[in-house]
Amino acid sequence: MGNNPCGLNDAFFCCCAGTWQNAARAMPSSTLCCPSLAMSPTTGCLFVIIVLHICGTLFYDFNLMIFCIFVFPAILGRECYCFVFHIVNNIRMALKRVMVLTGGGDCPGLNAVIRGIVKRASQERDWEVVGCIESFNGVLREPTEVVVLDEKSVEGLQIQGGTILGTTNKGGPFEWPVRQHDGSWISVDRSDEMIRKLGYMGIDAVINIGGDGSQRISLGLSKKGLNVVGVPKTIDNDLSLTDYTFGFQTAVQICTEAIDKLVTTAASHNRVFIVEVMGRDAGWIALHSAIAGGADVCVIPEIPYDIHKIKEKIEQRYNKRRGYCIIVVAEGAVPVGGGVTGVETGEVGYQHIKLGGIGEQLADDLKAAGVEHDIRYTILGHLQRGGTPIAFDRVLASEFGVKAMEFVLEGRFGQMVAYHHPDVVGIPLEEAVREQNLVGINSQLVHTAKGLGISFGD
Question: Could you tell me the domains of the chain?
Answer without folding.
Answer: 10-94 (no CATH), 96-240+388-432 (3.40.50.450), 248-386+441-451 (3.40.50.460)
